[in-house]
Amino acid sequence: MHKILYAEFLAQDIKRFRIQALKIAQKRKAGQFVIIRVRENGERIPLTIAGSDKKEGSVTIIVQGIGKTTKQLNKLKSGDSIMDIAGPLGKPSEIEKFGTTVVVGGGVGTAIAYPVAVALKEKGNHVISIVGAKTKDLVILEKEMKDTSDELFVTTDDGSYGFHGFVTDKLLQILNSGSKVDFVLAIGPIPMMKRIADVTKPFGIKTVVSLNPIMVDGTGMCGGCRATVDDKTVFVCVDGPEFDAHKVDFDLLTKRNRAYMREEKVAMEKFMKEML
């Protein structure tokens, strides 16, 4: 059992947890993730490590309550415990001195982008961050991203805060302004990452995305997280989760992520009835 040291909602259905996990806190690096099991017979869910505290022996995760298990997790409070947390898993981000970097976080993807932005800044890069959400109320980690960035742009789909438009619109605006960009990291919904890849490809900018497909064991054994990158099959949990955005087959990734939509809907409906 792993104790929840602290829990708070950052926005509607988006919750930040600090969880006791001494060994993971000591070893984790930017870009890696954990797999959590809330209860004995529960689903295993992958969640990126948003931060850690070696002295406290804790890791930070940020969870968006979408399906049954993430909603179960978000009902837990400080002092509660989760059954299992395994990690750190996946390959760490490849952090180099690129020059000028743009870190793009769409929605809860900002939680995944944040530790990479920190690592890029520590390496001496000029970090431009773009944080996007549907509305002002769903913007997360603005202060944290501002503190680790040389420039920060916030976008909202409805124009309720910051730049009115998508993160891709702001990125294209930056690139068209003549600013030299050496590296782009994009994390968020699949359509957003695909669009980012389309935007940067004509400029010849090295672009990396962090994929979050269906995942079970996190060790490459089950094959559930396979994706196609550069016309080759990869297992995201061990070969990634970060890949060259210009080589990812986003259309196939989208189809695979929808494979269990019916089962997920049934499980969610049953869970909601039990909560009544």
Short description:
This protein has 276 residues and is an alpha/beta fold. The chain has helices at 22-27, 68-74, 109-122, 142-148, 167-176, 190-200, 236-239, 250-257, 261-275; strands at 2-11, 14-20, 33-37, 44-53, 58-64, 81-82, 84-89, 100-106, 126-133, 151-156, 163-164, 183-187, 206-210, 226-229, 232-235, 242-244.
What percent of residues are in strands? 25-35%
CATH superfamily of the domain at 2-89: Translation factors
- The CATH class designation of the domain at 2-89 is Mainly Beta
**How many helical stretches?**
9
User: Might you state the CATH topology name of the domain at 2-89?
Assistant: Elongation Factor Tu (Ef-tu), domain 3
Characterize the main sheet: 7 strands, antiparallel
What does it look like?
- The protein has 276 residues and is α/β, with parallel strands linked by helices.
- It has a domain at 2-89: Translation factors (Elongation Factor Tu (Ef-tu), domain 3, Beta Barrel).
- The protein has nine helices and 16 strands.
- It has helices spanning 22-27, 68-74, 109-122, 142-148, 167-176, 190-200, 236-239, 250-257, 261-275; strands at 2-11, 14-20, 33-37, 44-53, 58-64, 81-82, 84-89, 100-106, 126-133, 151-156, 163-164, 183-187, 206-210, 226-229, 232-235, 242-244.
- It has a seven-stranded antiparallel sheet with strand order 6-1-2-5-4-3-7, sandwiched between helices.
- A hairpin with a 4-residue loop joins strand 4 (44-53) and strand 5.
- Helix 5 (167-176) runs parallel beside helix 6 (190-200).
- The longest helix is centred in the last third of the chain and has 15 residues, at 261-275.
- The chain is globular.
- The model has no long low-confidence stretch (mean pLDDT 91).
